[in-house]
């Protein structure tokens, strides 16, 4: 039974690693496409609409404002993590960054 559990765990880890690699590859491709000015704008709009449609399937009663607020909250979390890696003297002020976020109600 232990060998079977080990094999199953190894298979599961490989599946997770493959899913993470695919997600990273997709993100790299999106970034590369967005770097090209005109094609980048079209690609950015397309990818954002796809993300919204996926979100809408999971949140059928939600609207674009709710989506924007959820994206803003998640972006703020990731941005906060990234900013912690930047030296203090190069880091932009928190007020400057949070002032650009949409005003949202809490989604809890």
Main traits of this protein?
108 residues; mainly alpha; 4 helices; extended
Concise summary:
This protein has 108 residues and is mainly α.
Report on this structure.
The chain has helices spanning 2-35, 37-58, 64-83, 94-98. The model has no long low-confidence stretch (mean pLDDT 82). It is mainly α. The chain is extended, with a radius of gyration of 19 Å. It is built from four helices and no strands. It has two domains: 1-58; 61-108. It is 75% helix and 0% strand.
* Count of distinct strands: 0
Question: Portion of residues in helices?
Answer: over 70%
- Mean pLDDT metric: 82
Subunit organisation of the chains? single chain
Distance between the termini: 42 Å
Task: Give the biggest beta sheet.
Answer: none
Shape: extended
Derived from helix and strand composition plus strand pairing, the structural class reads mainly alpha
Strand content: under 5%
Return residue spans where pLDDT drops below 50 for at least 5 consecutive residues: none
List the SSEs and their pairings:
Layout: H1 2-35, H2 37-58, H3 64-83, H4 94-98
Helix pairs in contact: 1-2
């Amino acid at each position: 039974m232990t060998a079977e559990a080990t094999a199953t765990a190894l298979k599961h880890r490989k599946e997770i690693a493959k899913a993470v690699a695919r997600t990273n590859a997709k993100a790299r491709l999106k970034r590369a496409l967005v770097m090209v000015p005109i094609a980048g704008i079209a690609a950015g709009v397309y990818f954002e609409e796809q993300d919204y449609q996926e979100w809408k399937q999971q949140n059928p009663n939600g609207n674009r404002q709710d989506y924007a607020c959820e994206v803003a909250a998640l972006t703020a979390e990731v941005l906060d993590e990234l900013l912690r890696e930047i030296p203090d003297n190069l880091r932009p002020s928190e007020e400057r960054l949070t002032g650009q976020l949409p005003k949202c109600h809490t989604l809890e």
